[in-house]
């Protein structure tokens, strides 16, 4: 640590690492979410209370996925934003809506599963699709209110060909760190604790009650595994490293230098790639919640195998 001018951080890693990740997530996520939403809408009469949240989860994913091509262009041009300040803010706003909307809807799914298993008689017939729609609207509003202050921070640097900051530019980084910490607590920590408490109690009930339906137990354990996967890979590393990177920038601005600033920046960029994977991993909830989708997957695989065999059979017949 010293009080001299700090060594500048190399930003080349983000330009090399993030574009391939964004391209893969865009292709896989758009295909999986589009197909999942189409299947749910085609079977609307079968849609239950939880699947209303699943539909909103898919909409949040598509909202973010549509901005990824612009971010790919941004990083391919050496982190130079050419689409204007307003669209930069819109792009970052869509990311935040996707991230915290996904966390919010996953929390709702966890609470509904908890009520259905732990208090089935109290909620049976009392919670309707209308209630689920109203709760979904509330989630969107709360996430929007949390994300709105981010729009008022400076996102671009100097001119139209400058940077499009994920957070904000250097002059406002101290204020943004305070905002980010509060945002992390309300948008991530509280929903995570609610989800953990719900599934902790659910596991206790499933283990203690031998009368619990085995199919229900398996479904709950699978959903719990999916949520643990999402939180462990996508959400926890991102929030920890985002705030640590902001703190590193604050120290650098105050001429307090640390040797780990480069490593924190690289780790944060990796976490950004991981957090966008949630848009490709969220369709796992479709596979868990809808029995028709796995059957359709098997049909598609069988058709694919048949299509692969047909040219071979045709060529053999031609030779004969």
Automatic annotation (TrEMBL):
Record localization: Membrane
- Every copy of the G-protein coupled receptors family 1 profile domain together lies at 32-286
Main subcellular location: membrane
User: What would be one Gene Ontology cellular-component term for the protein?
Assistant: membrane
Could you list this entry's UniProt keywords, alphabetically sorted.
Membrane, Transmembrane, Transmembrane helix
> What Gene Ontology molecular-function terms does this entry list?
neuropeptide receptor activity
Q: Name the residues that span the membrane.
A: 20-41, 53-77, 97-116, 123-143, 181-208, 220-238
User: What's this protein's name?
Assistant: P2Y purinoceptor 1
What InterPro entries is this protein classified in?
Answer: GPCR_Rhodpsn (IPR000276), GPCR_Rhodpsn_7TM (IPR017452), NPS_rcpt (IPR027294)
């Amino acid at each position: 640590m010293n009080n001299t001018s700090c060594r500048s951080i190399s930003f080349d890693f983000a330009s090399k690492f993030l574009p391939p990740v964004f391209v893969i997530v865009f292709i896989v996520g758009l295909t999986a979410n589009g197909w999942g939403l189409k299947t749910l809408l085609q079977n609307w009469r079968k849609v239950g209370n939880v699947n209303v949240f699943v539909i909103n989860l898919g909409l949040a994913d598509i909202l973010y996925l549509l901005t990824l091509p612009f971010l790919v262009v941004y990083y391919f041009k050496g982190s130079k934003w050419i689409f204007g300040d307003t669209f930069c803010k819109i792009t970052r706003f869509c990311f935040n809506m996707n991230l915290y909307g996904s966390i919010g809807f996953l929390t709702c799914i966890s609470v509904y599963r908890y009520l259905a298993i732990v208090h089935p008689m109290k909620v049976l017939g009392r919670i309707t699709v209308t209630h689920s729609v109203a709760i979904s609207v509330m989630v969107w509003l709360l996430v929007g209110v949390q994300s709105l202050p981010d729009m008022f921070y400076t996102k671009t640097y100097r001119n139209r060909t400058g940077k499009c900051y994920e957070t904000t530019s250097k002059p406002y980084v101290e204020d943004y760190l305070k905002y980010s910490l509060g945002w992390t607590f309300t948008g991530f920590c509280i929903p995570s604790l609610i989800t953990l408490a719900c599934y902790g109690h659910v596991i206790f009930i499933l283990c203690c009650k031998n009368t619990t339906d085995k199919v229900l137990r398996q479904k709950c354990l699978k959903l719990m595994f999916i949520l643990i996967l999402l939180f462990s890979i996508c959400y926890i590393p991102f929030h920890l490293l985002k705030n640590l990177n902001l703190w590193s920038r604050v120290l650098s601005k105050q001429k307090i230098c640390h040797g780990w600033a480069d490593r924190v920046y690289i780790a944060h960029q990796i976490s950004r790639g991981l957090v966008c994977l949630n848009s490709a991993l969220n369709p796992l909830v479709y596979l868990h919640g809808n029995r028709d989708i796995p059957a359709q997957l098997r049909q598609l695989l069988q058709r694919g195998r048949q299509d692969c065999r047909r040219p071979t059979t045709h060529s053999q017949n031609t030779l004969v």
